[in-house]
Amino acid sequence: MGDAALEAALMRTVVRVLQSLRGWILPALLLGLWEYTSHRDAAHAYAFVPLEQVLAALSERLSDGDLLHNLEGSLLRASLGLLSGVVFGIGVGALMATSTIALTLINPIYQSIRQVPLLGLTPLLGLWMGNGETAKVFIIALASFYPMVLNTYEGLRNVDTRYREVGYVYGFRRFQLFRRVLLPASLPSLFTGLQQAVPMAWIAAVGGELLFNVGAGLGNLMMQAETGARMDVIIVCTASITVLGIAMSYLASLLSAHALRWRQ
Amino acid sequence: MSGNTSAAAANSGPSLLSDLEIRRIDWSRLRVLGVLISPLLLLVAWTLVVRAHWFTEQILVPPSAVLEAFAEVWDSGELPDGLKISLYRLVIGFALGSVGGVALGTLLATSRQAQIYIGPTFNALRQVPTLALTPMFILLFGIGETLKVVIILKSTLFPVAIATLEAVRNIPRQYLEVGRAFRLRPWMQFRRIIFPASIPPILTGVRIALGRSWMVLVAVELLAADTGIGQMMEIGRQMLRIDIVMVGVIITGLIGFSLDRGLRLLEWAMLPWKRR
Amino acid sequence: MKHRVHWMAIACGLIAGILFLRPVSSTAAASPDPEVIRIAAVAMQSAGKPGYMAAAQYVSEDQKLLAELQKRHVRLEWVPVSPTSVAALVNENFTSHRIDFAFYGDLPSIILNASGFQTRLVAPGNLGNNVYLVVPPASTAKSIADLKGKRIALHRGRPWEVSFGKLVASNGLKVTDFKIVNLNPQAGASALVAGSVDAFFTLDDAYLLSDKNVGRIIWSSQRAPLDWKMRAELWGTREFVEQHPELTQLLVNADLRAVAWISQEQHRSRYIKDLADRYGYPESVVQRDSENANVSWKDYWSPLYTPSVTQHYEAVAAYARSAGLIRTDVDVKTLIVPKFVDAGLKELSLGNYWVARATP
Taking 90 as the threshold, does the pLDDT of residue B219 lie above it? Predict the structure, then answer.
C-alpha cells in the first residue's frame, strides 16, 4: 500500500518536472539549429559562432575584467540619466498639470520633440554637447523624461475630483493641495511612468554608446567586438544587455509594488 | 494630452447662457493659437541667437540655412529617395510584424499548449532590446533590406503580440460564452467576437509599436545603411553639414508625428462607440 | 493670476539663461596662457585606459612636456576619439571649441576648413597609413577594374577615401562608376562577411578579415606611390596657434621627440608591440602594415614639410571638391605652418637627422 502510494507520488513528481521542461523544448531546438549551422563551414562559423566559443569568450571577458568594467560604466550612466530624466519629468509634468500657461507653451514643443527618434538627435547632440559623457547621459535622461512627463501629467490630471473637493473643504492652498492630495493620489501613475522609463533609459544608454564616442560601456564593447568581427563577444554583450535590462525592470516593479503597497 | 474645455467648465461663470458660450468660444480659439505660440517663440529665439553670434555658425545653423538645405536635398533627389526607401522598409516590416503579432498574441492567449511551449521563449526574446541586436543582425543578415525589415519586424511583433495577448485575455467571459453557445468555429469566434472586442487595446499597442519601430529604423540607418533618411543624416554629419542633419531631424520628427496622428485617426474612425 | 505670471516669467528666464549661457565656452580668451590644452587623438579603450595611436601615445607620456606645462600652470587634457568615426567626432569637437589640437587625418581637416572653421597643420605625421581593398574569398575580382559597377563599402569623409579616389583614377575610372556604400569600418567588415557588399576599402583591419579567411586582400597601397597613403597630422585651431605660439611650440617639440624616438630602427619592434597591445590587434597585423618597400623606417617618420606634403593636400582638396564633399575651395598653402617644426628641430638639435626626401 505504502509502496504504491510512493510510486504514484514519484511518478507525479517526474511528470511535473517533465511538464515544466516543456517550455525549454523550443529554445533547445533553436540552439541546436544554431550549433549545427556554425559547424558547416568557415563563413558560417564566422557569423554563427559555435556555442562553446561564446562561452569561452564570456569567461575570457569576465576574467580580464573587461565585461564588468563596461557593465559598470553602462549601469552608472543609465542610472544617472534615469535619475535626472525622472526628476525633470516629474517637474515638467507637474508644471503642465497645474498651470495652463505652462501647458500651452510646453505641450506643442514636447509633442513635436517626442516624435523625433532619439538616436536621430545624436549628430546634433554630438555637436552641441560634445561626444562624451554629457551627451550620453542627456540622451538617457531624455528617454526617461518622455514617459515620466506623460504619466505625471495624466496622473495629476486624473486625480478624482472628490479628493480635490476634500482638499478644498480642508481649506488647502494651492501648494498644500498639491503636496497633500494630488501627489499621493497620482503616485500610481508616477510609478507606471517609472516602470516605462526604465527600459527606455536602458535602450537609450546602449544606443548612445553605439553612436557616441569611446567610454566604458557595453555598447562600446560591442563596437570594439564588431571591428574584429568577434561575434562571440557580440553575443555575450547582447546577452548581458538583456539580462541587465530584465533585472532593472524587475527592480523597478519591485520598487513600485513596495511603494504602492498601501493600495493593495 | 488632448485639449479639453474642462478648465473652462470648472470656472463656473455667470449664469447667463450666452456669456458661458462666449467664454467657451474664446477658450477654444485661444487653444488653437496656443499650439502655435511656443514653436513661434522658439523660431524667433533661434533666429535671434544666430544673429547675435553666440555660437559659431557651424554649431547653430540659422533657420534660413536649414530651409536652403531642405531645398537642396529635395532637388537633388536625396531626400525624396531616402524618404521613399525608409518608409517602404517601415511599412513592410510593420505590416508583417503587426499581422504576425496579432496572430501570435491571439494564439498565446487562447491556446494553453502554445503558452506552455512557446511562452517562455517568447518572454525571453521579447526582453532583448532591438538595438542591442543590431550588431549581431548585421553580421547575420548583412546591411541590405533584409536587415532593416527583420529589425522592424522584431520591434513591432513583440509589443503588438503582448497588446493582443492582454486584450484577448481581458475579453469578458460572457462574450466568449456566447460564442460557445452559438457553437461558432474558431475562425468565426475570432472574427466576430475576439477581434472586435480587442481592437482598442490592440490599436494602442500598434500605435506605440509604430513609434518605436520608426525610432529603431532611423537608428539602424544611422549605424549601417546605404540608403534611407538616417543615412542622409549620417553623411551630412560626416561632411559637417549640420544644416542637412537638421533637415533630417525635422523630417523624421514630422513623419513620426504624422504616423502617430494617422493611427489615432484610424482608432477614432474604427471605434465610433469609443469616441472621447 | 498676477503672481503666477511673474513666477512663470522668472522660470522661463532662468531656463533660457541656463540654456544659452552653458555651451559658450571661452572662445579666444586674450593671450595669457589658457588653463588647459585639449588634444584629441584616435584611441581604443582597453581595460579602462585609452591607448592612443602612433606618436600621440608617446606625446601623452612625455614627461618633459608635462613639466614645462606645469611650470606655466597649464594642464594637458586628452580627448580619446573612437576610430569608428574620427572625422565627424573631431570636426564636431573643433567647431564647438571643445579641443585645441587633434591628431587626425587629411580629408576631414580639409572638410573642416572648407566649412569656415580654420585649423593649421603644425606638425606632419608619418608618411601615412596603408589602405587595402578586400573582397570575399570566393570573389573572382583581381583588381579594382573588375569591381566596376559593384558595391564597395567605404566610409565617406575619412582620409582613405582620397586614396580610393587615386586608385580609381589610376585605372581610368571614376568614383561614381561604383556603388559606394557608406559604412563605418565595423559595419563594413560585417557587410563583407555577410555578402552585402562586393568589396571593402579600409585600413589595416583588413588583415583581421583575411587572417580569418573571410576576406582576401587584392590591393594595398604598399604597392602604390607613397603619397597614396592616407595622412594624419597634428592640427591646431588657428586661434590657439596664433595666440599661444610658445605652447604650440612645446607641443610640437614633444611630438618631434616622440617621432625621433620611434624612427630609430632599434625601437621599431617595441613600437609595433606597443601599438598592437593598445589596439588589441595581433602583432603580425601591425607588423605587416608597417612594411613599406620604398622608404626606410626613419624616413617614414620624417616630419619635414616637403613639397609633397603640400601637393598631397592639394590633391585632397581637389578630390573633396570633385566628390561634392565640400562646396568651397580651400587654399592649402594657408594651412601649412612649418615654423614650429623648423624651430623645434633646431632646439632639439635634430636639424640634420632627417633629410628631405626627393618627391616620390
Answer: no
Quick one: which of B73, B90, B18 has its CA closest to B248? B73
Is C96 near chain A, with CB under 8 Å? yes
Distance from CA of A222 to the nearest CA of C (A): 10
Regarding whether B147 and B18 lie in a shared domain, the answer is: no
Would you call C244 helix, strand, or coil by DSSP?
Answer: coil
Q: Are C320 and C107 in contact (CB under 8 A)?
A: yes
Closest alpha carbon to C207 in C133, C259, C277: C133
Domain membership of residue B152 (yes or no) is: yes
Across residues B109-123, what is the average pLDDT?
83
User: What integer pLDDT is reported at residue B91 of this predicted model?
Assistant: 92
Measured CB to CB, residues of chain C less than 8 Å from chain B are 16, 20, 23-24, 27, 85, 87-88, 91-92, 95-97, 111-112, 115-117, 151, 155-158, 179, 181-184, 186-187, 190-191, 193-197, 325-326
User: What domain range is B217 assigned to?
Assistant: 67-274
Indicate whether B109 belongs to any domain.
yes
A119, B218: Cβ pair inside 8 Å?
Answer: yes
- pLDDT for the residue numbered C152: 92
Tell me if ipTM is over 0.90. Answer: no
Assess whether pLDDT exceeds 70 at residue A253: yes
CA distance A155 to chain B (A): 12
According to the CATH classification, is domain A53-259 in 1.10.3720.10? yes
Sign of the Cα torsion A112, A118, A122, A123 reads negative
Q: Does residue C351 have a pLDDT over 80? A: no
**Domain ranges (residues) in chain A:** 53-259
Q: Which DSSP state fits C102? A: E
Q: Are B76 and B168 part of one and the same domain?
A: yes
Per-residue model confidence (pLDDT) at position C15:
61
- Interatomic CA distance for residues C269 and C250, integer angstroms: 28
CA angle C48–C55–C342, rounded 5-degree value: 150
Is the sign of the CA dihedral A194, A196, A202, A208 positive or negative?
negative
Q: What are phi and psi of A121, to 5 degrees?
A: -80, -10
pLDDT digits (tens, 9 = 90+) for C177-220: 898 888 888 888 888 888 888 999 998 888 888 888 888 999 98
Closest CA to B232 of A201, A118, A120, C25: A120
User: How many domains are there within chain B?
Assistant: 2
Please name the amino acid found at residue B87. Answer: L
Give the domain CATH number at B124.
1.10.3720.10
